[in-house]
Amino acid sequence: MKEKATFGKDRQILRELAAQVAQIAALPVQQETIRLWKAHNALRPQRPLVMIDQIPWHEMNVNDELTLRCADEFHRGLETGLRRKLYCWNHLRADMVVEPFVDLCKVFHDDGFGPKVEQNLAALDPHNDVQGHYYLDQLQTDEDLAKIHTPHVTLNEPATAALEARGHEIFDGLLEIRMFGYGLGFNLWDVIPMWHSVEACLVDLVDRPDFIHRLMRRYTDALLQLLDHLEAQGYLDGPQSLVHCTGAWSDELPAPGYDPARPRARDQWTLGMAQIFSSVSPAMHKEFEIDYAIPWYARFGLGYYGCCEPLDRKLDIVRLLPHVRKVSMSPWVDVERGAEGLGRDYVFSRKPAPVRLAGDSVDWAGVEADLRATRAACARHGCPLEFILKDISTLQYHPERLWQWADLAMRIAQA
């Protein structure tokens, strides 16, 4: 009886939040913003677009807007997503789109690629999930490379059906339930340092290049075999709304012949990056990353490449990747060189430096000058531009800084 009463109370809380989301999702502006994203992603931009992601949510609560009230842990997870969506719409909307969905992930059993991460952690703020990581080397010999294998992935159909039923029981009549499949990208050089340590990776690129090639070949083969399996089983994601914190709406996807029951790689965006390669030459970046990524990108409909690594001096090798549409331009690039190198062929996915908002005070004149300089450089070279503020570790518990940044970025984008 108590559990039933708890469910009823939780369901009422969730439906009240869902009703607000549904009302916002029905506004005409949502379809207008999707139209802007589709034109932008087709390299026919009407103006720069703006998004904010990877927010320090532990610092953002005002007026109890993010305070959870559900009792059940599963319901609290749903409540978190709804409250954050409403919070973003109310305070830092930019070019976000609110869709009439609740996203749930299908339940998969996955035994992973093999190696286990061993690390030491360091945290400055116990409430912040952004921490320092010191990874210990688990791949020292060729024998250790045998630990890497193709993951065995299966869908738990009863658990997935039960999860979907729970979603319908709560949200029917207000929001649709969208069941997500298995998503993956080509981010090997985000994972390898967690197995092999950052220092060992950089040293071995010089001292043991053949070992790194064997490591890359084994890992790449395992990833491609996993993609084959997911595609054959119909486990992949369907059409995406986001890819790497940016809008993914496109009239080019899914590809002709799309079957919702069996999504293919060519129906999707993919993403990739090699952030540790910020400190290697273009030739080394090509040899140990791009050459391995080419067959991966060839499988997908559209692609996003890069993250924090500066790519303005490496755009000739990025152009070797098939189907890439957006290229990350991190805080460390020369924006003029990047815009000239990308031209009209790619979206300049600008990542403004979040550190500008993280100090004891904010130099808003400097923030504005940086945004305007980027827009001017892209305009000179006809380069489609988006501002994607992400990796925001802290605002020094001043959430209004993010609201102000969103307003400023939109004024510049709409000027």
Q: What is the rounded Rg?
A: 22 Å
Major beta sheet, strand line-up: 1-14-13-12-11-10
Distance between the termini: 58 Å
Any idea of the CATH topology? TIM Barrel
Described by the principal axes of the CA atoms, the overall outline is: globular
The string of secondary-structure elements, in order, is HHEHEEEEHEHEHHHEEEHEHEHEHEH
The major sheet is characterized as:
6 strands, parallel
Counting DSSP H or I runs of 4 or more residues, the number of helices is 13
Bin the strand percentage.
5-15%
Query: What CATH architecture do you see?
Result: Alpha-Beta Barrel
- What average pLDDT do the residues reach? 95
Uncertain segments are none
Q: Residue share in helices?
A: 40-55%
What would you call the structural class? alpha/beta
Give the domain tally: 1
CATH class reads Alpha Beta
Please give the structural blueprint.
Blueprint: H1 2-25, H2 28-41, E1 49-52, H3 73-91, E2 101-105, E3 108-110, E4 119-122, E5 132-135, H4 142-145, E6 153-155, H5 157-171, E7 176-180, H6 188-196, H7 198-207, H8 209-233, E8 242-243, E9 246-247, E10 269-272, H9 282-299, E11 302-305, H10 315-318, E12 324-329, H11 335-342, E13 347-350, H12 364-380, E14 385-389, H13 400-414
Parallel strand pairs: 1-14, 2-7, 10-11, 11-12, 12-13, 13-14
Antiparallel strand pairs: 3-6, 4-5, 8-9
What can you see in these coordinates?
The chain has a single domain, classed as Alpha-Beta Barrel (TIM Barrel), CATH 3.20.20. It has 13 helices and 14 strands. The protein has helices at 2-25, 28-41, 73-91, 142-145, 157-171, 188-196, 198-207, 209-233, 282-299, 315-318, 335-342, 364-380, 400-414, and strands at 49-52, 101-105, 108-110, 119-122, 132-135, 153-155, 176-180, 242-243, 246-247, 269-272, 302-305, 324-329, 347-350, 385-389. Helix 1 (2-25) runs parallel beside helix 3 (73-91). The longest helix has 25 residues, at 209-233. The model has no long low-confidence stretch (mean pLDDT 95).
